[in-house]
Amino acid sequence: MQYVKGVGPARAAQLKRLGLETVEDVLWAAPRRYEDRSRLRRITDLTPGTAATVRARVVRVALRRTQRGRSLVEAVMGDETGTISCLWFHQPYLIQQVKPDAEFIVYGRLEPGPPARRARAGRRLQFIHPELERVGGGEHDAQEAALHTGRIVPIYPLTEGVGQRWYRRVVHTVVSRYASTVAEALPADLRDRLALKPVAWALQQMHFPESWEALDAARRRLVFDELFLIQIRLALRRSRLTARRKPQRYQASGPLTEALFRRLPFALTASQRRVFEELCRDLCETRPMLRLLQGDVGSGKTVVAAALMAVAVQSGYQVALMAPTELLAEQHARVLRGYFEPLGVRVGLLAQGVAPADRKRLIRGAADGTVQMLVGTHALIESAVTFKQLALVVIDEQHKFGVAQRSRLVRKAGTPDVLVMTATPIPRTLALSLYGDLACSTLTELPPGRVPIRTLWYPESSRPEVYRQIREELAAGRQGYVVYPLVDVSDRQALRAATQMAATLKTQVFPEFRVELLHGQMRPRAKESIMGAFVEGRVQLLVSTVIVEVGLDVPNAAVMLIEHPERFGLAQLHQLRGRIGRGTHPATCFALSDTTDETAQKRLAAFAETADGFQLAEQDLELRGPGELLGRRQSGFLRFRMADLTRDQALLDLARQEAFDLVEREPQLGRPDLAPLRERLKRAGLSS
Ligand code: ADP
Ligand code: MG
């Protein structure tokens, strides 16, 4: 940036810290908001509480000190209709510019002034820290003035040290020089059909709009641009992964699925049946399946996946199921063994705690095809693990994995069918941007008999009462969780807190029950035995770090206390809460927090009020934005510069439709007029 007029090395460094390194960064960095300074007002017409622009002359001006020692420049400025006072604190140098009789464009917010000394003087108004533009200087000044006032003026998201006016001038230089050199990435026929403006015009208007209508048109074009590029990338990925025909052929119904459905202690919900059929249809296609199964926590995704796995096995193939934590992998192995071992299917578990000899046997079994279902953590993607006939890959809680891990497992088969599952409901718009390469099935109902979880956000002072209610539940034969936030596994202090808490609960608060601690740093064997005891009901209260977050399924657990809930995001809170209320007993979730942080308060209020995961996710998106909502791992490439997913849904749908149509027709984007688009994808690193 330091080659742009007006930007020296020091300024360039400041801009770099704001993420503005290149001319391109500046061009594409949208203003945070705009101020309408286009209409000049008469001083007599001004009203308090509004923002206004006036053209006025300095009547008198003085520099003084307030009682607290702050410097204060006070000017009285007037036009032909009246006068108004303007105040600036801490800017004594202004006295050099604000000279009597000089004329300015003044922009600011009108505040009611101090009460008038004499009643008939009426109300007084003042500007505090208004922006000033000198009028009537040389040509340069007039140009300057035209940039900052007398128009719709952009206000940028800047930090201290980088002033709006200075930066605005830089942007103006950059826009006038470079906007016209930006290559048009959208093909002409597309732009014509959708009435999208040229990119150069849109960039120019986004920074210095000539009207609100022009700004809308510019934004529409640029938001479309951004969303379209993301969707093109997803469409290309999907087309690459599903382009090849697969050799595997399935029998959707057969002895294994039939036996499974007979053995299940419950009937599938209508939603589960519909999704299962959807998945089977996908399996029977000639192209590989690439599908996301969404469903709120507890909606019963596992059994649907299990049924699909049965389809693969009865068709003579192997299946791999990957889960993000040891606990979850163990649970899945336990459940699948329960379903399938009596039916003669070998289910293997590849996790940390597995003894080397067993591990070897398992790896051999996977390689020679005698282990039909292999469950594990990311241990599955190690290179030692190979399969004879891997046809179906299932990834649970896939948001915990990166795209890279997913594709490494997928590469262990030729053209496998892939099912990924997630119980972190995310807003549809975000799902489309993040998982848009996947087809999507959604479980829309919970199994029958579930009672909605009651969620209570209480202050710390209610702790004894909360303990009393937990005791009641435990005494009635239910089980419970106390969850401690351990944001990352190396957080020793939090671990100590959790350990201490467990000891206190064990010996002092609930001595009559069996209380155990479970955390991520315990040895696998110890974890397994505690988890086993909890699943079997021998442990009543599990004090745990967030490793219980995903997937765990103990239907008898009916009460949960979340400590320091203010440290969790909404999605995570909802996941945690999803550990209870999985049976038919009414369940209660307590969140104890005295937080004074306003967003945290909003979050907790929403958490207590809303039981629906998808609804919560929408609120989370609004409260935190996509980056925070997803965490860095997944949102890596999802840095929206223009789009606002809560506002731009319609444009997203349009961009998606167009992108997928285009890739369908031109899988290589080979048409000559698509060269600029290919170029843009390559430069944005979006082509992979
Ligand atoms: P999630 O979708 O969160 O992964 P699970 O698959 O763990 O949920 O299922 C939650 C609980 O609901 C499990 O105990 C499971 O056995 C039970 N379940 C699943 N489907 C049904 C059903 N149709 N009727 C009754 N219970 C069911
Ligand atoms: Mg699950």
Tell me about this structure.
The protein has 688 residues and is an alpha/beta fold. The protein has 5 domains: 1-35 and 151-178, no CATH class; 39-137, OB fold (Dihydrolipoamide Acetyltransferase, E2P), CATH 2.40.50.140; 188-243 and 646-683, no CATH class; 255-443, 3-Layer(aba) Sandwich (Rossmann fold); 453-610, P-loop containing nucleotide triphosphate hydrolases (Rossmann fold, 3-Layer(aba) Sandwich), CATH 3.40.50.300. Helices cover 40% and strands 19% of the residues. The protein is built from 23 helices and 22 strands. The strands form 4 sheets. A 7-stranded parallel β-sheet has the order 12-13-11-14-15-10-16, with helices on both faces. Helix 13 links the parallel strand 14 (390-395) and strand 15. Helix 7 (212-242) crosses helix 22, helix 9 packs parallel to helix 10 (301-314) and helix 19 (598-609) runs antiparallel to helix 20. It starts with 8 loop residues before the first helix and ends in a 5-residue tail after the last helix. The relative contact order is 0.09. Magnesium ion (MG) binds at residues 301-302, 396, 423, 551. Magnesium ion is lined by residues 301-302, 396, 423, 551.
